[in-house]
Design goal:
The chain has 4 helices and 13 strands. By secondary structure, the protein is of the alpha+beta class. 33% of the residues are buried. The chain binds zinc ion.
């Protein structure tokens, strides 16, 4: 009897030891992956992928990152979450929206350049938003993702189900999030505050912004962003879309701010 209880205690101790150890290993691995991903931002990965038709193995060697690492930070979105809403109206993610620096290179599209002169897409709008600026849901929907991402920082994805189509809005570099996964939100619901998390960590003053994306598919790796003007209340355009250097071009604002008037 005594021997049996000793055995039992020994088993429990052994189990706890293995359990704790496996957690330590998993954490160490994901921290390591996190550092690798920070060095290889999503934009870099996709830029290199688009430039060359290299095979995945070559790509892994070249970037020091593989799809399994990349996918660690992508999350399958539960598409059954949320109800279809008949409210088709859209607002803006910040009050009195302004584009960061008033520059067309902070709009959506092939508006940026890499050091080698090749075109780089910006996949959303950067709104001027000093740290702590309230951020609002642009429409009724459900919070489908709250995540800490190496590039996007603290970010929120909202699924907007409509009778004929599902839309997704995405808010990045936040300093805080005020909603929970699975929570229903409405147009104008405050979902968090802007910040400089993720790859915006070194930005200050006029460069502090909210990165906002309109997506037609929820996953980061699907890269199905589209022009936010398709849904937003206030729309922004390049003042000179044909100019090669959009960083030298201003923006034109159209539409009202009736959401907050
Ligand atoms: Zn951005």
């Amino acid at each position: 009897m005594k021997k049996d209880s000793y055995k039992l205690i020994l088993r429990i101790v052994l189990f706890l030891y293995m359990f704790l150890n496996s957690n330590v290993i998993v954490n160490a691995q994901s921290n390591d992956n996190f550092r690798k991903l920070q060095k290889n931002s999503l934009d870099q990965i996709h830029h290199k992928r688009s430039l060359s038709k290299i095979n995945p193995l070559q790509e892994q060697q070249e970037l020091g990152v593989n799809d399994s690492i990349f996918k660690l930070f992508d999350v399958d979105i539960d598409l059954t979450l949320g109800e279809i809403s008949l409210d088709m109206s859209w607002g803006d993610p910040v009050k009195n929206p302004q584009i960061r620096g008033n520059k067309a290179s902070n709009l959506y599209g092939p508006v940026r350049y890499n050091a080698d002169g090749s075109v780089r897409w910006h996949r959303g709008f950067d709104y001027y938003a000093p740290k702590g600026t309230p951020v609002y849901s642009v429409g009724s929907g459900v919070v489908s993702l709250v995540q800490k991402h190496p590039d996007y920082g603290l970010c929120v994805l909202i699924t907007h189900k409509r009778p004929k189509k599902t839309y997704y809005s995405f808010y990045a570099h936040l300093s805080s999030v005020l909603v929970k996964y699975g929570e229903d939100v409405h147009k104008g619901t405050m979902i968090g505050k802007s910040g400089t998390t993720g790859n915006a960590y070194d930005l200050t003053d006029q460069e502090e912004h909210l990165h906002f994306e309109y997506r037609t598919s929820p996953k980061h790796s699907d890269r199905k962003q589209a022009n936010p003007n398709a849904i937003l209340k206030t729309k922004f355009y390049s003042a000179d879309p044909k100019n090669k250097w959009q960083a030298n071009v201003g923006v034109v604002k159209k539409g009202g701010q009736s959401l907050f008037e």
